[in-house]
Amino acid sequence: MLATLLGSTAPLWAFEQTFCATDDQQLNLCLPAPAQRIIALSPGITEQVFAAGAGGKLVAAVSFSDYPEEARELPRVGGYNRFDLEAIVALKPDLLIAWSEGNPAEQLSQLKALGLPVYHSDPDSFDDIASAIERIGKLAGTADAANTAAAHFRQGIAELAQRYADAPKVRVFQQIWNNPLMTVNSDHMISKATELCGGENIFADLGKLSARIDLEAVLAANPEAIIAGGMGEENRDWLDAWERFDGLTAVQRNNLFFVPPSTLQRPTPRLLDGARLMCQHLETARARR
Question: Source organism's superkingdom (predicted)?
């Protein structure tokens, strides 16, 4: 049986404290030794593990785990929304890192019932991302690398916050899907990155983290800039579709900006790259007034 304290009554002093971490469900997980066989259950978590200096300890990941390049070579154990439980068990992991919001709760419960150590990583703020890297580093025994990566991320975010603290606001529509048309509210990391750059999310008050939106609502709101990803890291077709709405300020000023979706939609250190690019785009929009 793989060692885990999940549900155990064993005292914490029985384990090395450096291999303990409290996850984002406020559950404490301790390992008897640094994790050597890790499975990441979302593409974002795969990136977090590599950022923590523990990519070499990954034995599998889920579909669409494509960054860094080495992640493409990892065996797959299904998708983030449906795992291959037999494949996971056969790999004998000593740490599973889960995404509570996207992973099926029933399957996570099954993995825990099998005695597998499950750690939940669900960062929803910039500091949470840095903390996630640090905590994964504790469990994997790569704390030095993880702490360095976390510090770099925090410093980069702080620099952007200082630089754009007094920047004139730009009203932004953030498009995360095209059919149906979807956007995010103020709680989403994309919206927080928008605010970091001095942008104002025109749908910040929506009740759901991500939601469908009517085309008419976007036209009525008349954003100064539209920022979108696409069906790939270089596909800006979604933006091209807005060109026919020449009454929009964003179209009139050519403020239709592309940001590779994985740099904004995954809670990883690459969010700093996405935020920097977004800030540049919003500076361009200000210059076009």
Answer: Bacteria
